[in-house]
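Supplementary Methods, section 5.1.

A reviewer requested that the exact input to the structure prediction be made available. We therefore reproduce it here, unchanged from the version used in the analyses.
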Amino acid sequence: MGPVLEESQPARAAGGRAEHGGWTGIDLDELDREAEAPYWITISLVPGVGPVGFARLLRRFGSARAAWAAGPALLETLPRVPDDAAAGIARLSREGATRVAGRIAEATQGCGGIILTALDPAYPAALSAADPRPPVLYLAGDPASMRRPCVAIVGTRRASGYGRSCAAEIAEELAHAGVTVVSGLAIGIDAQAHLAAIAAGGLSVAVMPSPLDRIYPPRHRDLAARLVATGGALVSELAPGHAPGKPDFARRNRIIAGLARAVVVVEAPDRSGALLTAAAAIDHGREVFAVPGPIDAIASRGCNRLIADHQATIVTSAGALLHRIGAESGGRPVSVASLSDSEAMVLHALLQRPGSIEELIGRTHLATGTVAATLTLLEARGLVESYGGATFHPTLPARRIGRPNGLDR
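The structure derived from this sequence is encoded token-by-token as follows.
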């Protein structure tokens, strides 16, 4: 495989056994990584062999090499067998596992990537604790970007200005705190989160539903290159040359959730892939946060429902989120210059004295919708708190930027 496959042995936990998440009964320490790698790669190319099926094969046969030696009989172990599975095995068998893996490795290297199996020490530890984990990943960039604490930010492709602003604010503060921002490279909230993280000098990882040689959407090729160039990574379950299908988007969402300590949903309609990511996060035992929005906003219906159903915690600030996941905020203090006109007006009014929305409308002479949206944004930035949803108060960071030469002058 050359430099494409990471060289070293799997890390061991105390007592000599590797920690490998939910693959109960499978001792990966007993497997020779170098000998197994071609078979892991080849079997993962068989139609119908996903993470669950692969784990079943290991449990039944003991190794991928032994499973491949069983030929078409390995299909008897899979939970679902598509019509083209047997033909896929026959085609791959004619080429041979070693040649197949070599061809895929060469194509991956041509994309500037590496191949990681779940036997590799560079395989993301967070995914090793997820069930089911992808047996093979294709990665361009630095695997170390996923050794930091990771938080996922996901949301609708049809993001509003409010949604993009919230995503950017949260991603920026996470980046300043040394947290890697994970998302799906999609248009809208995903792209905004990636861009804000790298603009703040942080790291961002994009989990793609497409292979490394087919960036999706194509308009984000430059963004993908920037993520890699700034120390982040691109991650895919698909080998180069393979066309993505609808199931690959759902599997992408599960990887995003598995990599992250927490998932933040910023604007999601009722039917949204972001909600699937939130559901996967709950399955993985991760925390889910949601940015609330107006009750009549279609883009916020999913977020509001997550909050109402107690499946997500309201995001009031990235600082609170960092505290919940055991990280500390390292963000630069917000400056007066970074506030919009409406934010500055509302915050100035609150620094004079706390108040309700109605009081702030009267004191700022702004429209009701503007005040409501501004308060939500200020809460997301950690500058405003509300008690019982009725009275709003400036936070300590807000008071720091307000005096002596800021908003109270």
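The mean pLDDT is 85. These observations are discussed further in the main text.
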